[in-house]
Amino acid sequence: MSQSITVSWSTIDAKYPEASVQVDKLPNHDLILRCQAGLRPDRVAFAELLRRYQSQVDRVLYHLAPDWADRADLAQEVWIRVYRNINRLQDPAKFRGWLSRIATNLFYDELRKRKRVMSPLSLDAPRSVEDGEMDWEIAGDTPGPEEELTTREFYEQLREAIADLPEVFRTTIVLREIEGLAYEEIAEITGVSLGTVKSRIARARTRLQAHLQTYLDS
Q1: What pLDDT score does 10 carry?
Q2: Helix 28-36 and helix 43-64: axis angle, to 10°?
Q3: How far apart are CA 120 and CA 1, in angstroms?
Q4: What integer pLDDT is reported at residue 145 of this predicted model?
Q5: What pTM was computed for the model?
Q6: CATH 1.10.10.10 fits 145-217, yes or no
Q7: Right CATH number for 10-114 from 1.10.260.40, 3.40.50.300, 3.40.50.1240, 1.10.1740.10?
Q8: CA distance 59 to 21
Q9: Of 49-63, 110-124, 149-163, 173-187, which range is least confident?
């Protein structure tokens, strides 16, 4: 996985006042409500949101644009959009998915501007999903050298399988299995019907399983 992208934005780089509430102790829900309370987001609360969720923005952009040298600039633009639009978020519990949508939509905006072919997606940090439909984590408390090698080999095979998928399948499977977005959210982001999203995910999984079957059997 690439190194974390550090966002440098003076307007949200605020220190916590000693006499104020310790925002680092507040739950995410309360932080978002503080950001929505005034005409502009509370800078201290917003800075804490950025600290907690910056790695998520980094991950989304890394998977979608692994070869882009300006991902730090894109990450900064994501947070500017969040700052300007956080009052539009109706349900604070959906902040994570909303943030992923902003990052993904920004990527598509830039992709259209550049009129270039998307490079294969990278998958250095597979993540398990809660619904049990696909688990890309290989469990192990204290893996030995042989197990670590096997794990690395599996991830390499998985990365190759992802890279071989058509672009629409790659994007859909990353949004579903890596980011854990709902089918409805993916449909909104990609601009296709819910049925198309489900079909693409099913076909992508079938292709991945076929690609990996020989390796898994061995």
Answers
A1: 46
A2: 110
A3: 15
A4: 57
A5: 0.57
A6: yes
A7: 1.10.1740.10
A8: 30
A9: 110-124
